[in-house]
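Quick note —
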Amino acid sequence: MPRTMTGKKLETPIKQILPGRPVSEVISAVGHRLRGCRRVHTTIDRREHDMTTTLRNVRVFDGDRLLEPGTVVIDGALIGNPGPEGTDVDGRSGVLLPGLFDAHVHLLGPDDLDRLAASGVTTALDMACWPPPHVDALRGRVPDIRSAGTPAIGAGGPHARMPGMPADAILSAPEEAEPFVAKRVAEGSDYIKIVAERPGPDMLDQATVDALVAAARAHGKLSVAHASSVAAYRTAVQAGVDVVTHVPLDGVLDDETVARMVAEGQVAVPTLSMMEATVRGRGRPGEAYENARDSVAALHAAGVPVLAGTDANSAPGSPSPVSHGDSLHHELALLVEAGLSTVEALRSATSLPARCFGLGDRGSITPGLRADLVLVTGDPLADIAATRSIERIWCAGVDVTR
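Predicted structure written out below.
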């Protein structure tokens, strides 16, 4: 393998930030769910070029730790070999990060993608978007996206009243789970989204959530559950979903639920930005942002992988709007406030989502991987706010105009 990056390791290895759990165990626990998953590789519209870009004297956060100043080469769409001609970039004033993930967004159109790209998000994980031709039209752009397509919901919850929600999103019995999942797979969904709400009439019950998770696994797909209350979280965790997104506002997660997530290798995407906006927007009695923050602290302390996601959406009239792009940097700050170190917060938006969602071609600055890169001024390991000070962005080797 060509030597395209040099430097002595400076930061703590990732295994030391998951208390009592070596990284190999975490990845194994999550990764066993990924066997057989179909990876979708889209082609990004970009100018054809044969020249290389060489970043010199740059400090590199490689997705795991910070390296001493060295050299990184962008060769076409990948991190690779220097060419006979190229452009030199002096990176001595900054830190080079892997392209950022937002592990929970909702996409309406190209404007959402533009805002994400301008903030250094090179991979966006959409958690509900339809119809399939609209999703397909958003693929192959910057950022690169994955999508759940149509979510599974119950008839009695607020999601069923969302404008334009497809009729086939609504499930009322466990036997409907397999046809629902099979249709999503045929449409090209990358994972299956399940909306777990507070137990009640016409909500997805435990048996139906269980059946959806089993069907997703049978089709080689990850299952991702929406859960923003303690009861919904328990339902999702008991069903064995791979990823739980949001955290409760009506209470702090109990030790038993957290321990079960650790034992099952489940992953959390807390979306603290959305939980903060929800409290600010509706302010229901008994709900508090502190419950969400403290739940993240409990998950992190126990060793549950925590990924950075925002629930960014641009739906007209949304009661809890969260903007695309800049909200990810706010999310990183909220995760640090909840107990993650700056190194852990950076991993939550780079290497961890790549591993947990089976996207092994990105998330790290390593020769042979996609050249998804963000050059920032300042030191985000000293101050996470430095991720906002973006100088340059590359997505699959393309210099993204900001």
